[in-house]
Amino acid sequence: MSRSTPQASKPRGSFTTVAAFLFGAPVGVGLLVFLHHGPYQNSDLVEYVKHPVEMTEVVMFCCAVAAMLAKIISSFSERSARNSELLPPWTGDPIPVSEAAKLREDLVRQPGWIQNSYLGRRVANVLEFVDSRGSANELDDQIRTLADNDVMTQEGSYSLLRFITWAIPILGFLGTVLGITNAIKGVTPEVLEKSLSGVTDGLATAFDSTALALFLTMILMLCSSLIERLEQGILEKVDAYIDAELTHRFERTGPESTQFVDALRQNTQVLLKATEKLVERQASVWSRSLEKADRAWNETGHKQQQQLSVGLAEALENTLNRHTQRLVQLEEKLLGRNQGLVQGMAQVAQALGKQSETLMKLQEGEAQLLRLQETLNQNLAALASSGTFEEAVQSLTAAIHLLTTRVVPGSQGARAVQRPAA
Fold it and tell me: What distances in angstroms separate CA 90 from CA 85, 93, 94, 241, 247, one per listed residue?
């Protein structure tokens, strides 16, 4: 399915480029001459166009304005071509492809500016495609291709405007740098003390180029955007006209479409068979891969299980040995503590036996004291009955000495016995 090459479009940017340099540059130079030598030569407006960089900005701005005016004139011609009768009225019924040659002859009789318009060239390319092929089966693709080519042609026609819009701010900054350099060149402290205004005036003049460049750039960007939207609207109207008048105007023959359908069916069947084979191969590859992975996993799992069992057995054995050693140590410590307790209990029992003996002696002494107390009570009673106090005192003294003699043995007892005799 071959496709004829569409007719080459004439460069749309050539007219705008010629207009920019042929009309814009002389207008810019004339405007500068008018400002410098006309009635405004002493006004503040001349301060913004006296530097060479500022003059260049003005000339480039005039070139851009000339290019945009050329585009506006072209848009008027495009609208006029849209309103002209390029094709005879269409009733809506498909016509034979052979009528394309007759329509081409009618289009050739149109004026040159109509044939060179977007609409004229689009219609001519469509008719040439249908006439050269003798069929309209692939006309939709051809129309889309032509529409894309016109869009690219329109974008290319703005290359000069985009360059000027980019270059003017750069020139402004360049003028500022040059102005600052000239202003501070040769400045000494003596000059600053005498006249600081000279330096400030030079700096003010330097920044004028940037201010002028930014102002002109804003104007260019606004106007360029409006004109670009205007031309996009023209292309949309051209697309609408082609879709309404030419897309379905010619008959679509059957044999070629039938061959295309048959070829498509054959290709579909071949693709399905190839897809089935590919799926089967892929399934077999996946099954083999899964089997290998399963075997590898089983082997790895068995090895890991053995290693885990051995490691657990060693760990348990080490743990049991450690616990056994710890229990032996604890048992030895407990035996040592029990022996110490038994010895302590024996010592306590001995101490308790001694205390028991001491208590028994104390009980015996207590019994003796009780008997002595009874004896004293009897003696006191006897004394009380006899009435002789001295005898009672002597008897009491004798009893005390007797008790002392029993408690304190030896020489002290002898002394205690001798004292009453004296």
Answer: 12, 8, 9, 12, 12
**Residue type for position 255:** P
In this predicted structure, the answer to whether residue 378 has a pLDDT above a threshold of 70 is yes
Percentage helix, strand, coil for the chain under 3-state DSSP, each rounded to 5: 85, 0, 15
Q: Return phi, psi of residue 243, to 5°.
A: -65, -35
Spatial distance between the Cα atoms of 68 and 64, rounded to a whole number of angstroms: 6
Average pLDDT value for residue range 204-210: 77
State pTM to two decimals.
Answer: 0.52
Angle value at C-alpha 43, between 40 and 49, nearest 5 degrees: 80
- Within 13 A of 215's CA, how many CA atoms are on the CB side? 10
| 83 vs 390: CA distance, rounded Å | 178
Crossing angle for the helix pair 389-407 and 411-421, nearest 10 degrees?
170
Instruction: Tokens 């394309």: give the residue.
Output: 100
Q: Amino acid identity, residue 367?
A: A
- Which of 63, 83, 305, 313 is closest to 171 using CA atoms? 63
Which residues have C-beta within 8 Å of that of residue 122, sequence separation ≥ 6?
Answer: 146, 147, 150, 238, 242
User: Does residue 61 contact residue 176 with C-beta atoms inside 8 Å?
Assistant: no
Our CA dihedral for 377, 379, 384, 389, rounded to 10 degrees, sits at -130
- Residue 28: Cβ-neighbour burial (10 angstroms; 0-12, 13-18, 19+): buried
Given a cut of 80, whether residue 128 has pLDDT beyond it is yes
| The pair of three-digit structure tokens given for residue 52, joined into one six-digit string | 């060479």
Q: What would the two tokens of residue 178 be? A: 């040059």
By three-state DSSP, how is residue 86 classified?
Answer: coil
Q: Inform me whether the pLDDT recorded for 261 exceeds 60.
A: no
Residue 119 has pLDDT above 80, yes or no: yes
Beta-ladder partners of 250 = 95
Which of 135, 142, 141 has the alpha carbon at shortest distance from 252?
135
Neighbour-count burial of 393, counting CB atoms closer than 10 A to its CB (0-12 exposed, 13-18 middle, 19+ buried): exposed
What does pLDDT average to over the chain? 78
Residues ≥6 apart with Cβ < 8 Å to 379: 392, 395, 396, 399
